[in-house]
Amino acid sequence: MRAPRGAGASLRTRLVTALTLLVLVVAALAAVGSTLRARQEAAETQDELLTRISELAAVPDPSASADVASTGAGAGIVVEEISAGSGHDLPSSLPDCLSTTTTDDGPQRVAVRTLPDSRRLAAAQPIAVRDDAVRETVTSTLVPIVVAVPLLVLGSVLVVSWALRPVESLRRELASRGGDQLEPLPRDGVPDELTGFLDAVDTHHARAAGVLEGRRRFAAEAAHELRTPIAAVSFQAEHLLAARDEEERERRGRTLEGGLARLRTLADQLLVLGDESAPEDHGQSVEDVVRALAGDLLGTPEGARADLRFDLEAADGALVPATAATTVLRNLVGNALRHAAGAGPIEVRAMAVGEAVRLEVLDRGPGIQDPEQVLAPFHREAGQEVPGHGLGLAITVRTLERQGGTLALLPRPGGGTIARATLPRA
């Protein structure tokens, strides 16, 4: 499979490249340092040899003369007298020390010594001969470094490949798994540096498994909930076609319209509940949100008959995500209207609490037996005769979670329920 556009080089390539560059830099520094050191040592050795030969030449001993001849010949060194009138190529004005001069034969390195009888002897060595000696020394120093560089690079490749074997094993393990195989990854032979990464992957897999399981359950429950209204609408359509007169046709048509409206409401709720995206929302004052919602509710038969009371003084003009707050209040107030409209006034309160806004809907209805379970999709408490699909509170929870809010269903002193939603300010 091709790497996605913009993906970086593999870890293996990065490590091998980095180690290779490190080897080359170290080898280059070693080569430069060794070359300079070898040149210096070779020059010092040649100067010491030149000085030693000049000292031996000054000794009036036949054996010393033999040593001078044999040693000097091997190093290209020539000993000659440079006193005035002796006939030679070297200048007679050279000082008694090591110096460099130029003759007809080219540059020469010369060591001069004055004898007790005032004669002056010079041991001369061509610079070309000295350069050959330095070149041999440098070559013998650099050859091991040049040979070692490719061996070190090859060793780096082998070491990196060996070190990344656990990563390659994990890659093969992940590649061989199916889309629903989200169990923890194996830890056998995995280095400590990868443990934290694998823990994060396993945590992500656990979350993904939870999401997949939730989606499977939601799909199964949605299919189950849709089966009955679809069957009812189909049955009503058949009855409409079988109507014998206009009056029966109109009555059965109204029944079919009501069934279609309930089916459309259920489908809309399922779409909202199944939408994983978090739509963009704009800030609006709590007062404006409640005012718009109150206008919608009072225009319905249930809202017109109910005793709705609003207390927004403590909101202090706080801004909330308008769409989310409208969805939350519409569902909570709608639940209260369906279950407790005839049991007493329904109160809607809003108050600013730090960086959040608290929205409360209070009723005097029968209360909630299981506040935790009633938040699950499609859950309806036993004994309820009010029509519905059990999705309103689930949609409210999903809406609040997307905004970082919470919902709590609390028993109200004296009977009834307090539905308390908390939203961060917009």
TrEMBL record:
It comes from the Bacteria. SMART domains: HATPase_c, HisKA. It is found in: Cell membrane. It comes from Brachybacterium rhamnosum. The keyword Nucleus does not apply. InterPro entries: HATPase_C_sf, HATPase_dom, His_kinase_dom, HisK_dim/P_dom, HisK_dim/P_sf, Sig_transdc_His_kin-like_C, TCS_sensor_his_kinase. PANTHER family: SENSOR HISTIDINE KINASE TRCS, SENSOR HISTIDINE KINASE YKOH. It is an enzyme of class 2 (transferase). Gene3D superfamilies: 1.10.287.130, Histidine kinase-like ATPase, C-terminal domain (3.30.565.10). The chain crosses the membrane at residues 142-164. It holds the Pfam family HisKA. Residues 221-426 form the Histidine kinase domain. Its EC number is 2.7.13.3. GO terms for molecular function: ATP binding. It catalyses: ATP + protein L-histidine = ADP + protein N-phospho-L-histidine. This is histidine kinase. The lineage of its organism: Bacteria, Bacillati, Actinomycetota, Actinomycetes, Micrococcales. Keywords: ATP-binding, Kinase, Membrane, Nucleotide-binding, Phosphoprotein, Transferase, Transmembrane, Transmembrane helix, Two-component regulatory system.
